[in-house]
Amino acid sequence: MKWKKYDVVVVGAGPSGCAASKILKNSGAKVLLLDKYGFKKNKGCGGGITPKALKLIKQIFPEIELKANSVNCLEIRYVHKGLNKEVCRFSFSSPVFHVVSRSEFDMKLLEAVINNGVKFSRERVRSLKEHEDAIVVETDNSCYLADYAIVSAGIFGSSLLSREFSQKYSLIVHRKAKKTSEEAALTFFENGYAWYFPGFEHASMGAGVYIEGKESFMLSKNNLMLASYMDEDLKITPIPSFSLEFLYEVNRFMEGCLVVGDSAGFVDSWTGEGISYALYTGAIAARTILKYRKTRLNERFLNNTRPIMENLVMALGLRNSFIRNFPDKVELIRDKRFARLLFSYLSSFSKNLFRLVLKSYLVPRSKVQIV
Q1: Long-range contacts of 289-297 (CB under 8 A, 24+ apart)
Q2: SS3 of residue 261 by DSSP
Q3: pLDDT digit string, tens, across residues 5-50
Q4: Where are the alpha helices (DSSP H) in 149-227?
Q5: Topology of domain 4-69+97-167+241-370, per CATH?
Q6: What's the pLDDT tens digit per position in 228-246?
Q7: E-state strands within the chain
Q8: What is the C-alpha to C-alpha distance for residues 338 and 280, in angstroms, rounded to an integer?
Q9: Rounded distance, CA 294 to CA 309, Å?
Q10: DSSP label at 75?
Q11: Rounded Cα distance, 288 and 276, in Å
């Protein structure tokens, strides 16, 4: 049987896969994009599009008009020893983030990629294997041959390379709810967080914890109730834990195969945000393939994503510092300097805390008010 041959096969049509596919196609590559769900995909996500994610969307998908609700006000609360306390409210002169329907957002990205000429097929991928100087992508229906592959298939995408890979994760709970306020809210706990994000038509609410494994489900559900949010019709979604060791391991496993987004654990350990990292790593994977081809491709990709890794290491440190001496650290949020720091953190990638603090001083004082 003769296998269909492509320059690049991209597995997974989320933000990272669509970003990579579009950039590759724009440069003349023959690309196949595979996803088992296609347009009918429900994503477990708060739907928050940060300013840094929005910049990437505009760069890669300028033709897309986002149906989003802009959030300018953010309430901060914490729950400790039965006390549910409001800390402060931030009012930003420009949106601190935007809220979208993840299913609609992903559908728009996929439509843009297909309209751009990328070949898309709704198929479940079974495995990726090396074959001579190429990669064989096996699906339920067929086999494809590619010079390069990009795995952007969500949290369990690494299992397509080897069943021995076991990515650590925690479970968040979330639901679509009636919109009761235009203000977003974050409630912190000693072990995690809960959110209320007002979308364009509905609100997203949910909770997560900084604890890995199956026990995180009940802890997340408990946090949701403690935050006074209803726990009916909950959906469960695994969120990958960021690990440098895992990220390097999966991206050195198969030459010519790059693992991006959630599949490699490119997710913020503090905020849980992953869309900007998915878009960024998908774009870097595509550009690395176009520039370096077979010349130490995987190592080049890891080098090119080093600034993102440093950002995620910083995020992990910030999270650990934030929950240390809880809730005293949460009370420090009242300081206007923290509000500017938060705005800077959500607006751009920073390699270390010094650069983040420096950027925050460039945020005009008029940009944020504490009310």
Answers
A1: 289/8, 289/24, 289/29, 289/148, 289/150, 289/258, 290/23, 290/24, 290/27, 290/29, 294/256, 297/148, 297/255, 297/256, 297/258
A2: helix
A3: 999 999 999 999 999 999 999 999 999 999 998 766 777 678 899 9
A4: 216-226
A5: FAD/NAD(P)-binding domain (3.50.50)
A6: 776 677 888 999 999 999 9
A7: 4-11, 31-35, 48-49, 69-71, 73-80, 83-92, 97-99, 119-122, 125-131, 134-139, 143-151, 169-177, 184-189, 192-198, 203-209, 235-240, 257-259, 368-370
A8: 26
A9: 23
A10: E
A11: 18
- The neighbouring-strand residues paired with 187 are 77, 194
Neighbours of 120 (CB within 10 A): 20
Token pair of 282, please? 């998908």
pTM: 0.94
Query: Could you give the 3-state DSSP secondary structure of residue 193?
Result: strand
Query: Could you tell me which of 286, 287, 240 has the C-alpha nearest to residue 10?
Result: 286
Task: Determine if residue 332 is left, alpha or beta; phi over 0 gives left, psi from -120 to 50 gives alpha, anything else beta.
Answer: alpha
Residue 68's φ and ψ, nearest 5 degrees, are -140, 155
Report domain extents, the chain. 4-69+97-167+241-370
- Below-70 pLDDT ranges, the chain: 1-2, 39-40, 44, 230-231, 365-366
